[in-house]
Amino acid sequence: MMSLISLLLLASLLPHLTFTARVNVGIVNGTEAKPHSRPYMVSLQLTKTHICGGFLISDEFVLTAAHCWNGSQILTVVIGAHDLRNSKNSDRIGVKSYIPHPSYIIYLSWNDIMLLRVTIFSLNNYVEWISLPKKGEDVEVNTLCSVAGWGQLWTDGPKSDRLMEANVHIMNNRECHKRWQETFSVSQMMCTHGHGGSCIGDSGGPLVCGNTAVGVTTFGYKLLCNSPEKPNVYIKISLYIPWINSIIRNVK
């Protein structure tokens, strides 16, 4: 009798156990990043809730997507984090100024890139910036790259507390344009395909190839994260190097 009760109890718990496992092990077919292996990653937060990713590119600036800010919100930036529930090794810093690209077009996601000037922070084993590409530099098709973030673990699912990552490959821009039609700007954007990929909440995070951030996560198919038919799209950073450099120089 006791064994039957135990089996019934286990059966009643299985749905909850499965849900917990899914939360802990996957972000759209990704894996948990090694803690602090991506010290450039930041969490953009509104009222202490993660809304977007971003990444450190200097001792005063974060690069992210322009759509992560509505023009009036007061965001904070969490640096040095892996598990957002654990403040050990992480710091919450303020934003001094929000600098979206002057030609950002909301409804098209064109020029969806933004600089945040943040309060001074110290570099350490958990906090470091990442390199950017040279002006006009392209990434070869099929290059193995990666994305990371604290976004949703699956379509309409919960966001991850721990930093997740996935490998992706660069797609041919003509194929990207074919899939997205006029939504995709061949000159401004690039896209990827892979078993894993970004979801809601990963916007603003970097597309990293080697040790260089080559793209800013901008959009994907809203009905299905990491859709094989509608690949994830990124703003091509190399196009914006002159603009980025001009902003940084002006505050020195």
UniProtKB/TrEMBL annotation:
It comes from the Eukaryota. GO terms for biological process: proteolysis. Residues 1-20 form the signal peptide. Residues 27-249 form the Peptidase S1 domain. It catalyses: Preferential cleavage: Arg-|-Xaa, Lys-|-Xaa. Keywords: Disulfide bond, Hydrolase, Protease, Serine protease, Signal, Zymogen. One of its GO terms (cellular component) is extracellular region. This is trypsin. It is found in: Secreted, Extracellular space.
